[in-house]
Specification:
The structure is a homodimer. With about 575 residues, chain A is of the alpha/beta class. Chain A has 18 helices and 28 strands. In chain A, β20 and β21 form a beta hairpin.
Chain lengths: ~575, ~575
């Protein structure tokens, strides 16, 4: 039975009375962290007090007694960290696994854009992620994917207009519309992207941006349209242009893009309060080796930032931007999301509290229940491949096709001419993108140079942003076999050789996430990489991530779509 | 017929497309302010650009052509000013008159608490002010009165619990719950005030505070309860205690209370962004002589504040606090609420734009339509006196009563003993409070010393916070006559002598506001003061304002309520 309004007010009254009684010292607090040095984000100073916590909230700073007390002996208490923009799917694990990975790094809130899974499953993907994050010991908030498919050239699993996503704005954990990548469409005043913006505004929600290097009056148009932030700034002048026009700057340091060093000068008094931190994408090894938002805080301090400024960028500033007004500070009435460190110099995270509950002590995460996704969505996520069994014939093509020339260490490509056959000796391999959502049998075929494979084939269903199957091979038969194995797994990464999988990482959730623990995913991924290198893949190339970007028709110059090789520079098929 | 959701999105789409086209430079802007020097509140610097305005919004900063163009030749453009907390009623004029008075001072938004009129008319008073401010050329936003009556000792025109005000939260111009003066009740966890707070929070609204000198764990309890600001700080340490706990500080400089000089040190980099400006109360002469929020900006600069910091306290900081996220900055997508000054040194306001419309040029306010209040409310406001004709007998009292001893220049009083008769020679006058809302015939009687009247009587219906009739006299008959005249006028200020009104200011709107122009109200008020002084009132006393506070049973030590003389220190009737 749903609660009446008067009943709701009464429930909140009773809770508030307990909070007030504890704050006033009439009742003992649930927990008191005695002798805490804490970052005061309002006065920008370190202060010392007992921190009293009741009902998951900080209720007071002063002298307190609690049912439970812990003497911090001056250890430093920070507001829990907040990642302002991340695609959880990039970690290749479930949200619960992601939470387990980032909690020891002091993260208590992430703002996610379920763009990847929505490109596979549409609104079911959004709902899947909402359910899979409900009640986690980190608070996962959502920005709704704004660009599904990412471009009109893509063949994704769904096409989402503003009506499709509208009802999600009523969800209590939805904060707005995610990165509006279609800045060209916005500036042109195109109906679809602009409708999405006005609908988000009609719901009083935020709209995040994505507009690398946009300047001048075009930038004015994009900002005036209602895009409030950007996380794509890679140099200071780009960032300042946006900041001056009122955009909040999300300083990004993730696996694929790393902008903190370039944008560090923003963390000065005049501009710091308009900045926050985000990761965008974090791959398993990066997450395990470098950590999460704590890595940005530590790096910023290392570069010379005032630690309080760095901590605010990692917490308070983002909370205010997203109108999460009771988090991001150590103050009465704020969520007891707290990260305890030994000192700013060594920055060892000792404990992490989330809503007043101890989640991590000495690096060990306390067990927590994994959210259950309902049966429909569970099954839906595990049956996203709709593609008939492929044969060598499907990959045959008598006419010459363009060659995507890899550039070592980059995700850009060059136009390397054309070919009508595989020539592994000269490193001309065949590459294909197989549409896998709707069994259209659309298979885009081209060639690739610089990948280095000498034997077998490599296939993956992580293929931005539509997550079709992308496969590279030294023979059409092995390409078909590798792609078939990916489909058979319901998604994954497969290194195929000698008629069998030399290595594989199944990704049965929408073809992009594993249900295994992060460490295991990372182990299998590293093992698969090793196999790929053993088969000749160029050591300067990431065997899978490189392929994942080959189908994204926004990065110059040649890309491969389900409809063939596309020149991004000339915007035409070659 | 109400608009469908799809229809609303389509309407907003078409408007947004016009904004984008103008911002991108494809269409001429409605208005371009060429060569403007403007305050950039994000990067904290002065920049120069053309400011393009379309559909009431700033759409771009750069090079623009417009249907209308004005070369500012480097004049400085500031965001329009915002008063974070004011009781409009204190200006004694209609909201339209108030708007006409403050527009030339660069004010484009005020946040009002209709506390005074609500104490007279209850929710009808709130609705009256909402209607009387609809469509004004300043945007009047509301905080709902939290304390009607102000204390349980008061006999006001209404008693408002959380249910009474709840539906107003859905009004698009209601931002939250106004100053929670009952901090004692909040800290005690009393049902009524805490219910009001949780209801405001349930509507995702702000709650303003009012808690002079509150410190320690009691302050923690008040803040943890959900009170987000304070405007009662009168010294720096008080303000810092509150700011450190997360409250925003409204630096107040009004007619009755002036805190800017004491709080000026807050306008430093570490704390300035948690501060905003407000006036609380502005009386007619003060408004005419000193101005409004511009006075605080100028005074802050004079005291040594960075002009950009002062401008932000007057605009941007308050806008963010109240979640008015598209005002308080000169940037794309923000309301074109702009104040143009010649320089920070001379600070002459040249022009004021509100939503892109020129409202003031060279001190002259362009005419605007006065909002119409509906007939029911119009009549309701003009019939708020329910009190039978009074006679001298009503003010007779054989038993001795306490004497309120005035302190020159203060609104506090001392306990000056007791008396059983008027003795004008020794400056012992009779004072009475006549309940006038519900014809209860409750008349509180006492004496007052230090007022100085030698002949006749003075009566006023401005009597905080219940606005009963307060009257002081040298004879009971003249007290009755003066009070009757106030009731006959439907409210006002009356100086009575020789069997007639020597001077009077009618206040027919709820007994607290005039329908005359501000200048005329001020002229009559000054004339009445002159008459009061001519009849002997002590030159160190404001003849009317002093009386207005005599019935407020929260200021030490003796006050007079409708039930008799009350000692605030001992909380008992004497």
């Amino acid at each position: 039975m749903s609660e009446s309004y008067a009943g709701k007010i009464n429930r909140k009254l009773l809770k508030k009375q307990r909070i007030i009684a504890a704050a006033a010292g009439r009742e003992p607090a649930d927990l008191v962290l005695k002798n805490a040095t804490y970052v005061n984000v309002f006065s920008n100073e370190l202060l010392t007090a007992d921190i009293a916590i009741t009902e998951g909230l900080i209720v007071g700073l002063g002298k307190y007694a609690g049912k439970e007390e812990l003497d911090l002996n001056g250890q430093i208490v920070l507001p829990g960290f907040l990642d302002a923009h991340i695609h959880l799917e990039s970690a290749l694990v479930t949200p619960a696994e992601f939470a387990r990975a980032v909690l020891p790094h002091g993260t208590t809130t992430v703002i996610t854009d379920p763009h990847e899974i929505a490109n596979v499953m549409g609104v079911d993907g959004i709902e899947y992620m909402l359910q899979a994050t409900e009640g986690l010991p980190i608070d996962v908030r959502f920005m709704l994917p704004s660009c599904v498919p990412a471009t009109p050239l893509d063949e994704s699993g769904a096409v989402l207009d503003y009506r499709a996503i509208d009802s999600f704005y009523d969800h209590p954990r939805v904060q707005g519309l995610a990165e509006m990548m279609n800045f060209v469409g916005v500036i042109a005043g195109d109906e679809q992207p602009v409708e999405k913006i006005v609908a988000a505004q009609a719901h009083h929600k935020k709209i995040d941006g994505h507009a690398p290097d946009l300047v001048g009056n075009d930038l004015n148009a994009y900002v005036a349209a209602g895009v409030y932030s950007d996380h794509e700034c890679h140099d200071l002048s780009d960032a300042l242009e946006k900041l001056r026009r009122g955009q909040f700057i999300m300083i990004r340091e993730g696996t694929a893009a790393r902008n903190l060093d370039a944008l560090f000068p923003l963390l000065q008094p005049n501009t710091a309060d308009r900045c926050m931190f985000c990761c965008d994408d974090k791959h398993p090894s990066d997450l395990l080796e470098k950590g999460h938002i704590d890595y940005l805080v530590k790096r910023a301090i290392e570069l010379g930032a005032d630690p309080i400024v760095a901590v605010k960028a990692a917490s308070h500033n983002a909370a205010r931007y997203f109108l999460l007004n009771n988090r991001g500070a150590v103050a009465p009435g704020y969520l007891a999301d707290l990260t305890v460190i030994d000192s700013f110099d060594s920055f060892q995270i000792q404990r992490v509290y989330q809503r007043g509950v101890l989640r991590v002590a000495d690096g060990v995460v306390n067990p927590f229940p994994v959210p259950k996704v309902d049966d429909y969505l569970h099954n839906r996520a595990r049956h996203t491949f709709h593609v008939d069994t492929l044969t060598a014939q499907d990959f045959m093509e008598p006419r010459p096709r363009g060659i995507l020339g890899l550039v070592p260490g980059e995700i850009t490509t060059v136009d390397a001419g054309y070919s009508d056959r595989i020539d592994a000796e000269y490193d001309v391999l065949k590459i294909a993108v197989v549409e896998r959502h709707k069994n259209t049998r659309h298979i885009g075929i081209g060639f690739i140079q610089g990948y280095g494979l000498k034997s077998g084939a490599v296939a993956t269903s992580i293929s931005h942003d539509s997550h079709n199957i992308i496969v590279v091979g030294t023979s059409e038969a092995e390409m078909a076999a590798a792609a078939n194995r990916v489909a058979e797994l319901g998604g994954g990464i497969v290194v195929w050789n000698n008629g069998q999988a030399a290595a594989e990482l199944p990704l049965p959730i929408a073809g992009i996430m594993s249900d295994l623990p992060l460490e295991e995913v990372n182990r299998r991924l590293e093992a698969a990489k090793e196999q790929a290198f053993a088969l000749g893949v160029n050591p300067g190339v990431d065997p899978f991530m490189t392929l994942s970007f080959m189908a994204l028709p926004v990065i110059p110059s040649l890309r491969l779509t389900t409809r063939g090789v596309f020149d991004v520079t000339t915007q035409s098929y070659v």
